[in-house]
Specification:
Blueprint: H1 2-15, E1 43-44, E2 51-58, E3 61-62, E4 70-73, E5 78-85, E6 88-100, E7 106-112, E8 117-124, E9 130-137, E10 142-151, E11 178-181
Antiparallel strand pairs: 1-6, 2-3, 2-4, 2-10, 4-5, 5-6, 6-7, 7-8, 8-9, 9-10, 9-11
Length: about 190
């Protein structure tokens, strides 16, 4: 009897990992921090970035319809990036953190699901309802994206849709071609 009990106990211990859940809504573990600050520079999660942000302007031009992209920044350093592909709203997991560069410019670092990274200078308007992100592309052009705060973000975030058709061309994912950062301050 003891032998059967011991055998059953051993089988239960070895088969227990087979009965774990595979939940698609689990937060994306991410590719790791990616390129970021130099060693020894402290990172932080800026509480004013936490929330839902919709792109409203790219380089001073209004952005509407399917040209809009969106971020949901969660308070744990993860989030979601939303964009339209062929007219359909899709999303991917992101990781994010902030740090101050050597010029004390606040930098937002975002790592996308595919491992691509964005380092951009950022600031806010006076009442923290606009997030302005700025970086320089490989060709030397300065990119400035302005996002409007649209609400709180809590994982998992709801899919947000925009009914208006595109009035402007599609915008690129912020930082897909970025090489350097501007130095504007909060």
């Amino acid at each position: 009897m003891k032998k059967n009990y011991l055998l059953a106990l051993l089988m239960a211990l070895f088969t227990l990992p087979l009965f774990t859940s595979c939940d698609d809504d689990d937060p994306w573990p991410g590719p790791g921090p990616g390129p970021g600050p130099d060693p020894g520079i402290d990172t932080y999660l800026d509480k004013y970035i936490v929330g839902q942000w919709d792109l409203v302007a790219a380089n001073g031009d209004e952005v509407t319809g399917t040209a809009v992209n969106m971020f949901d920044f969660f308070s744990n350093g993860t989030g979601k990036y939303y964009s339209y592909v062929n007219g359909e709203l899709g999303w991917e997991w992101i990781e994010w953190y902030c740090y101050d560069n050597r010029n004390n410019t606040p930098i937002l670092h975002v790592t996308y699901n595919d491992g691509a990274g964005l380092n951009c200078a950022y600031t806010f308007n006076r009442d923290y309802t606009r997030l302005i992100m700025q970086w320089t592309e490989n060709d030397g052009s300065l990119m400035t994206y302005t996002y409007a705060f649209t609400g709180e973000a809590s994982a998992p975030a709801r899919i947000r849709s925009l009914a208006a058709p595109a009035a402007t061309g599609a915008t690129v994912r912020p930082g897909t071609d970025a090489v350097s950062i501007s130095t504007f301050r909060r």
